[in-house]
Amino acid sequence: MDHPAIRVTDVHKGDGYEADPVLLPSVPVGLRKVLDLVVSGEATSRAEIARRSGLVRTTVGKQVDHLVARGILEELESSESVRGRPPRVLTLSPRAGTVAVADVDTLASQVAIADLTGRVLAQETVGVRIATGPETVLETVTERLMALLAQCGRDSGRVRAVVMGLPAPVDFQRGCTVRPTGMPGWGGYPVADELRKRFRCPALVDNDANLMALGEAGQEQDGTPLVCIKISAGVGAGIVTAEGELYRGADGAAGDIGHIRAVGGGGDVLCSCGNDGCLSALASRPAVLRSLGIPESTDEDPLHGVRVLAERVADNEPNAVRALRQAGTDVGEIAAMLVSMFNPRTLVVGGPLSELRDDLLSGVRAVVYQRGLALATSKMTITTPRLGESAGIHGGIALATREVFSAQGVARMMVGEP
């Protein structure tokens, strides 16, 4: 069957996955409808697909058979107890492939393997420091992801997409960071290209706060628009529109709030960017630990600082509690501006400091409700991440599966390309 071709830029060549234009057959509309209904869970049988899609049963049958033959769908007998012939249920096949995700932070990273339904198959924390450079981090992350694939019994050659989140400004189109601070060797490094070569499949690189926002948006019913503020080595924000799409801005810099001057000014507190009084210089994890004289990490424990701070806050030590509350106030001032600009339904405040106690979140809430107009705040929820430290992983999975089930991704599956 002949269909117009679509142009994609990813194609296997030799041992790598290089960016050369190639024509793939476009995917029939009927096939896309069938696959979308099964992937979304809206239909699990041929009859349901015909009813919901408006396609005739012969067309549905033909496309289902085609998808089953390609190993993308499988049709199984239902376990439900019914009279007569058991109904047959359509679902994504395990042979359809997997996605690999890494949410990289400055001191440790989360890595995970998920199937194409978004179900996490394996996940672990990797203690690699971002300051060791891109080559070391990518080598370590790749090794652990390959190990997780083997642990799950999944073929590394069937990885359909890989996503990496980085704590820095990211040029999403080029797949690299742009002038990151505290990340030697990362500026302009072709992260996406390297991941493509290693996994021989499409690769996407995004800001870590964007992935956290996307992960949280997937947990919220009627929770968008959503703004997610991540307080970690720096302070950044991810913005998800009412349609569930990430808002990255013209160049990918949307949400980079860490280098906005804090409302209090911060006196002469010097930021890593060279300016005084930036929000990251006052309210980030390193800034709070520094104000209390707590080392951020040790050779034995990269998360030493957060653990010590958690103990002091649990003991209700006045200086620790006050530092946490002040960070909440500083973040709250900028959050109030974001609320006025984007009018989100949900404001999420995440990162290791937000998980210690309610003091930081209370500080954010107090400022936002004080400064925000009633129209913008009366129906808004301010909360911590439902997914905790796994929010970025789930956001990466969402981004990866969107790529897999895009027109180009489905076309690759239909011709056997990862």
TrEMBL record:
By its UniProt entry, which InterPro entries does this protein fall under? ATPase_NBD, ROK, WH-like_DNA-bd_sf, WH_DNA-bd_sf
Source domain of life is Bacteria
Listed Pfam families: ROK (PF00480)
Q: Kindly give the PANTHER family that the UniProt entry links to this protein.
A: GLUCOKINASE, ROK (REPRESSOR, ORF, KINASE) FAMILY
Q: Per the similarity annotation, which family is this? A: Belongs to the ROK (NagC/XylR) family.
Q: What is this protein called?
A: ROK family transcriptional regulator
